Amino acid sequence: MPFSNRGCQTNDRTPESERICQPWLENVQPVRVPAARGRLRGAARKPGRVQAPVRVEAVTTSYHLLAGPGVSRDSITDAGLSELYRHPDPGDRAWVRTNFVSTLDGAAQGPDGRSGSINTASDRKVFALQRAHADVILIGAGTARAEHYRAVDLEPWQRELRSRLGLAPYPTLAIISRSRDLPDDLARPAAGEQGGPVILIAPHATGEARPTPDHVELIELDDHDLVPCKELITALADRGLRRVLCEGGPHLSRQLHAAGLVDEICLTLSPLVIGGHASRTTAGALLEPEPYELAHCIAADDQALLLRYLRGHRAHS
Ligand SMILES: NC(=O)c1ccc[n+]([C@@H]2O[C@H](COP(=O)([O-])OP(=O)(O)OC[C@H]3O[C@@H](n4cnc5c(N)ncnc54)[C@H](OP(=O)(O)O)[C@@H]3O)[C@@H](O)[C@H]2O)c1
């Protein structure tokens, strides 16, 4: 289940990935993409482009909306699911969405230290759908190392959806790191020939620094020991990367929350209990409690709950 699998960043086409591809494309309305101030490799944009209707394939997983807009007893259509996960129009500033999976007992890592062992099929689809809606996938280097992240490749249905929405062909992968300890082949997608641009955002190196992997753009921020999250998000927004999807991990998530930057939390509650000492979806020192409002709650037929919460003031904007 490669293209959409948390914990597996390869992009091999499999019968299952073929079966679930292209489900999201009906009734998709175009969005207007703000002009990028600095264009990244492969990030050409065609705002507001609308294409002819696309044929879609059936999927087997069914989803039922328990709370949210238009609750009914019917299962959610593919187009409806896509709308529920459309990345809100960010306007002038970025809109930061985090996406995590957690077990019923709060673990963000499976027994193998990765998230791929605790997710479900319904989570993988929604994960892939969110990627299709994002300008940039933001991660901390710990997640890049644990989950073997590589440049983001997409399935045809994801690329088609992006094209309809007027988004760049691929989302950029942005990684923050102080150590710059990243795999050399980071910019090469695990399978396929193309992948999105990759950028590394790091504090300015005072001494000798590890070389940046080939084809990775380096953004160095001066006068900082750690990358400050506000500057990080501003640097992304300045490049036209305003639909920010943070896929982790827990330490980066905590910093984004501490800076008051998380507009939206998508969380999959996976029907597992694993015990142990795994990290939660945020790690580190206590935060000032921050209220969020439920935007939707979906029950999937594989027993997962798919939750979307909006930060108080964003829920009403
Ligand atoms: N359940 C889920 O949905 C989910 C999602 C993502 C990850 N995970 C799991 O979470 C675990 C990784 O956790 P983690 O908390 O270590 O991941 P993380 O937050 O992605 O990575 C932490 C690392 O990111 C870099 N970093 C973070 N903040 C920084 C800053 N302000 N400036 C510069 N660099 C910064 C540092 O990298 P350097 O050490 O290179 O300096 C730091 O060690 C893995 O087991 C992964 O599987 C789970």
Bound molecules: NADP nicotinamide-adenine-dinucleotide phosphate
Query: Under the CATH scheme, which class?
Result: Alpha Beta
Main beta sheet strand tally, sense and closure: 10 strands, mixed
Uncertain residue ranges: 1-5, 7-58
Mean pLDDT rating: 84
* Quaternary state of the chains: single chain
User: What is the straight-line distance between the termini?
Assistant: 36 Å
SS elements, strand count: 10
Q: What's the gyration radius in Å?
A: 18 Å
Dominant shape: globular
CATH homologous superfamily assignment? Dihydrofolate Reductase, subunit A
Number of domains: 1
Helix count, DSSP H or I runs of 4 or more residues:
8
Structural class: alpha/beta
Q: Could you name the CATH topology?
A: Dihydrofolate Reductase, subunit A
**β-strand amount:** 15-25%
The succession of helices and strands, N to C, reads HEHEHEHHEEEHEHEEEH
CATH architecture descriptor: 3-Layer(aba) Sandwich
Strands of the largest sheet, in order across it? Answer: 1-9-10-8-2-7-3-4-5-6
Q: Portion of residues in helices? A: 10-25%
List the helices and strands and how they pair.
Layout: H1 15-19, E1 63-67, H2 78-84, E2 95-103, H3 121-133, E3 136-140, H4 141-146, H5 156-165, E4 172-176, E5 198-203, E6 216-221, H6 229-238, E7 243-246, H7 250-258, E8 264-270, E9 292-300, E10 305-311, H8 312-315
Parallel strand pairs: 2-7, 2-8, 3-4, 3-7, 4-5, 5-6
Antiparallel strand pairs: 1-9, 8-10, 9-10
Helix pairs in contact: 3-5
Bound molecules: NADP nicotinamide-adenine-dinucleotide phosphate (NAP).
